[in-house]
Write a structure and sequence with these properties.
There is one protein chain. This protein is mainly α. About 75% of the residues lie in helices and about 0% in strands. It contains six helices and no strands.
């Protein structure tokens, strides 16, 4: 079992490294423009990506020529952006340098990676027996939960019983990593 876990941990690390490289390239081109995203807008961006995955899974055809795996990568990166925004709030302007953005990315990507490793140990590689479409559905469920929490927070009506938005972002990242790995294998 330890051998499978080591292989999985390496796959987790490789996937996060791939996402990081893409994030860094986009940061070079666009700067930290995502800093202006308010929580609800970020949730909607996650929703769009997850809905596109589900649509492609059902239709089995992409008219724009991009597949499902890049959307899982986008979900990972937007999930990390979500964690950054939760910690720092949103801004009306780009208020951090690319170096600062990468430090924040690395901090939250590492937190997500370490959580994935711990959960994988406890769940004994159960994700390998799941279908990719289930990851999509679980991600959409997490997004719906985030929307509900955001709506309740706007009303000042959240209960302590719900997971926080950060936990849901972590789960979205986790499921998206699973999907990215499965679609590469």
């Amino acid at each position: 079992m330890a051998n499978n876990e080591s292989k999985t941990n390496a796959q987790f690390e490789q996937t996060i490294a791939e996402c990081r490289a893409l994030f860094e390239k986009k940061l070079h081109d666009y700067g930290a423009s995502w800093r202006i995203l308010r929580p609800q807008s970020l949730t909607d961006q996650l929703f769009i990506k997850a809905k596109r995955i589900r649509s492609l899974e059902i239709k089995k055809e992409s008219l724009v020529g991009e597949g499902i795996r890049p959307e899982f990568v986008a979900l990972i990166n937007y999930g990390i952006v979500g964690l950054i925004q939760l910690a720092n709030g949103f801004s009306d302007t780009v208020d951090i340098t690319p170096d600062e953005a990468m430090k924040l990315y690395d901090r939250f990507a590492n937190e997500a990676l370490e959580l994935m490793k711990r959960k994988n140990h406890d769940y004994d590689e159960a994700w390998r027996g799941m279908r990719v479409s289930s990851y999509t559905d679980f991600i959409l469920t997490k997004i719906e939960r985030i929307k509900e929490i955001e709506t309740l927070e706007q009303k000042g009506d959240t209960l302590a019983a719900s997971e926080g938005i950060d936990s849901n972002y972590m789960d979205i990242i986790n499921y998206a990593v699973f999907g990215a790995i499965k679609l590469k294998e």
